[in-house]
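Run folding on both entries below.
>entry_1
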Amino acid sequence: MIFRKLWSKIDNYFSKDEQLIINSLENEKKEHQEQNLLLQEQNDILNKLVSEKEQEAELEKFWNNKRPQTSWRHKARPLFENKDGTWDKVNINVDPRIFFTNDNTLSTFQTVSFDERASKCLNWVASNITYTPDKEGEFWQFAYETQKRKLGDCEDGAILMANMMLMSGIPYWRIRLNCGEVQGGGHAYVTYLRELDNEWYVMDWCYWYNESKNFKKSWKDAKKYFGIWGSWNSKYMFGDLPKD
């Protein structure tokens, strides 16, 4: 009550013009405070983004250098098709990185997180591609060939999945194509560095899909996967020459 009376006397002390000036100054002060608060929030967001980007750069560097980078070629493509429809047994030695292609005709997913996109790519390949072993020797298909034919063996589906993941915006260094020994013999499959915990997970569309979906099989717990002969992402190669 005393404060109100005092404030009333102060109001009466200033002229109307002076009061307008005071009110204007108070409004300007309030606007400056709001602008400073907004600027601080923007700086906080920017600093967070910069920090996340730096962390991503460190992870990329770490995983691209954890294993020695190598260079090898594999007899992955037949030289030509014979008139009777069979493939010539002489295959071309190719750099397996050629199977990463910038192909916007592939099915992709643009969900919120990289992990959701990776999971959807695995499920799509498992649901749409029929596992069909090569009849004569090695014949690695490009992603568009597998998507069009709707069939292929282990490396064909893995190549398609890896390309779908890449075209869905997942960083290249979080995606690995692998050839290695598993329970039952040689196999090709994808491993993915999950964004949630930065752990590697097996993404196997054909041999043990049910164990791979929903990130059930981390690499460190994947007992059916004995070792890797060779692995690669779209930029770098690791390990030795895959066995024929």
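>entry_2
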Amino acid sequence: MNPLIIPIFLPNLGCRQRCLFCNQRISAEKVPSAPFVQNFIEDSIKELPSNGTREKQIAFYGGSFTAVNREDQIRYLEAARPFLASGLIDSIRISTRPDALDKEALTLLKEYGVKTVEIGAQSMIDEVLSLSQRGHSVADILAATSRLKQWGFEVGLQLMIGLPGDTYELFLETVDRIIDLRPDFLRIHPTLVLRGSPLETLWETGRYLPLSLEETIRWLKKGLLTLERSGIRVARIGLQPTQDWDKHFLAGPYHPALHQCVDSQIAFDMAEHLLRDNSEGSHALFLCHPKEVSNLRGQRNGNILKLREQFQLEEVFVQGLEEIPRGSLFLHTPSGYASIKRKDLVC
């Protein structure tokens, strides 16, 4: 279960150069002071559920935390320390670059109770990293992940798809290499063209073409199923929209519920597979877990409409039953039920 997060954004803080896709002013206009952080945490705790078993974490996002000068790192960690000591917060997480995790940095993180370190990997292809002006290599990602595991940190990797030079095949190669690393979780974001980012110029001059939403879903569908079969947890797909999002977004496969779009396409493929082998009559009845009914139906019943048209059905019914395992889909047939599991879907 994902923890409850109190996010502290440190836009561009500690970044050694500007990546091609970056405009982190979209998350916060200025770098917060340590006193502001302490007040923000105190106010945010009041909004968190007082009961339940979900872990509560303070998260320093946006910049490269361990590349910030040591004094500023300590100021931020000191602001969080009282809440950790009192038990109001369970742990701390930070995000950083893979080439900013030496022994001194890890020692400081351990001293202040940091549990989770998210690495901005973005790709496992050196050419893609170079074209995106990341300033680090795949070797740095491998070394950082190994070092964090040796030190006992929970490790998350952040990936992007559709960067300059990226292809469907290279993305799947990245997924395979990520699986070999065995991180604790992943975040996957599509590459978007943001106003004020260096990528804006490439897009305006026709030297960069972002993925379409349909391409993005196709890439993510294959990648997500591959990761799930390997036991790698995907904590999030897509970006969290902000209040001023419309002022910054220019082009690319943005959708406010991208993960659901991918899950819905997977559900459609499962239903299509069952109907292709078992379609009889003018009606179809599917059974799934109640929490997966909306994915099967699709946005605005889009999946239902497509299934009706494709298989010339008068009606498609979906029933949610608690006893149906998550990730399984059943189709009523004259001889009983045909079924398919999400993990067995071939795409």
